[in-house]
Amino acid sequence: MTVAACLVLARSVPREVEAFAAEQRFGQVIRTMRKLNASEVIAAVRDRSSLANCDLSNLDLTRADLQLGDFHCADLTGTRLRGANLKEALLNGANLTRADLSAASLARAQLASAVLRGANLKRARLVLADLCGAKAAEALFEEADLSGARLDETTELIGATFRRAVLYRASLRQVNLSAVDLSGAVIKEAAVRGCNLERARLASVDLQGSDLSGSKLGLADLTHANLRVTNLWACDFRGADLAGADLRGAKLVWADFSTARVDGAAFEGAQYSREAMRATAFPPGFQPAARGLIEARSA
User: Fold this and answer.
1) d(CA 225, CA 228)
2) What span, in angstroms and rounded, lies between the C-alpha atoms of 150 and 112?
3) Which candidate, 206, 211, 219, 208, places its Cα nearest to that of 195?
4) d(CA 161, CA 142)
5) Can you tell me the distance from the alpha carbon of 236 to that of 80, in angstroms, rounded to the nearest whole number?
6) Which of 38, 69, 202, 266 is 20 to 30 A removed from 17 (C-alpha atoms)?
7) Residue 87 has what pLDDT?
8) Where are the beta strands (DSSP E) in 129-201?
9) How far is CA 36 from CA 32, 51, 64, 94, 265, in A?
10) Using an 8 Å Cβ cutoff, are 127 and 146 in contact?
C-alpha cells in the first residue's frame, strides 16, 4: 500500500484526522518500506515515532509495550503480538492477517478498516475498540473481551468465532453475523439492531437486556439462550431452535416464531401482539395465555 493511499484512508475516517495530525507532535516519522526489526519497533514507539506504512511482518513482539503506537497502514502479517500492550494504538488500515494477538491488550485501539483475517485474538482485551470496517473473516475472538466495542455493517466476520466472548454493551448495529459461532457469549445490554444472525450458533448465549429489534435469526441455534427482557420487535425466528431458551419479559411484538422450535422455552411476562399490522406469529397450537405471555396494547 502506498503512502498516498494511507493518507487517503487516514482522512476517510474522522477519528483518524486527529491521529494523522498527531505525526506533527510525535517527532521523527518513520515511513519507509524497509524491514524493521523488533528492537527498532519498540524504540520507535518509545520515542513516539510513527510506524505508518512500515513492514513489520513476522516479527516477534510478544508482550512488547506498544501502547499509543501509530501503526496505521503498517504490514503486521504473521507478527507475534501475544500478550502485547496495544492500548489506544492506531491500527487503522493495518494488515494483521494471521497475526497472533492472543491475550493482547487492545483497549480503545483504533482498528477501523484493519485486516484481521485468520488472526488469533483469543482472550484479547478489546474494550471500547473501534472495529468498524475491519476485515476479520476466520478470526478467533474466543473468550475475548469486546465490552463497549464498536462494529458496523462494514465489519466482515465470515467464519469468525466468538465462543464465550464478552460483548457487554457493544454496538453491533446491522453487523452480518450469519453462521458465526457466538455460543456461550455474553452480549448483555448490547445494541444488536438489524443484525443478520441467520444460522448463527447462539447456544447458551446471554443476550439479557439487549436490543435485537429487526434482526434475522432464521435457523439459528438459540438452545438455552438467555433472552430475558430483550427487545425482539420484528425479529425473524423462522426455523430457529429456541428449546429451553428464556424469553421472560421480552418484547415479541411483530416477531415471527411460526416455524421455530420453542419446546421448554420460558415466555412468562413476555409481550406479544394480535393486532393486524404488528401481530406476533407463533407455531401452530401455541397458546400465549397458557404460556404466561401478556398481550401488548397500542396506545
Assistant:
1) 9
2) 10
3) 211
4) 6
5) 41
6) 38
7) 98
8) none
9) 9, 10, 15, 15, 57
10) yes
CA torsion through residues 159, 164, 166, 169, sign? positive
For residues 197 and 20, give the distance between their C-alpha atoms in angstroms, rounded to a whole number. Answer: 36
Interval 124-146: pLDDT, tens:
999 999 999 999 999 999 999 99
Q: What residues contact residue 165 under an 8 Å CB cut-off, 6+ apart?
A: 141, 142, 143, 144, 145, 146, 182, 185, 186
Residue 260 near residue 284 (C-beta atoms within 8 A): no
Q: Are 289 and 268 in contact (CB under 8 A)?
A: no
- Placement of cell 420453542 in the chain: 262
- The CA distance from 173 to 215, in Å, is 9
pLDDT tens-place string over residues 3-55: 444 444 443 444 443 444 333 333 344 444 579 999 999 999 999 999 999 99
Model confidence pLDDT, tens digit, residues 180-227: 999 999 999 999 999 999 999 999 999 999 999 999 999 999 999 999
Q: d(Cα 224, Cα 246) in Å, to the nearest integer? A: 7
pTM: 0.88
Q: Residue 119: what are its φ and ψ, rounded to 5°?
A: -75, 150
Q: How far apart are CA 104 and CA 178, in angstroms?
A: 27
From the list 180, 104, 105, the residue with the least C-alpha distance to 136 is 180
CA 127 vs CA 34, 70, 71, 83, 107: distances in Å: 33, 19, 19, 15, 5
Q: Any idea what DSSP says for residue 28?
A: S
Give the Cβ contact number of residue 59 at 10 Å.
22
Specify whether the CB–CB gap between 131 and 110 falls below 8 A.
no
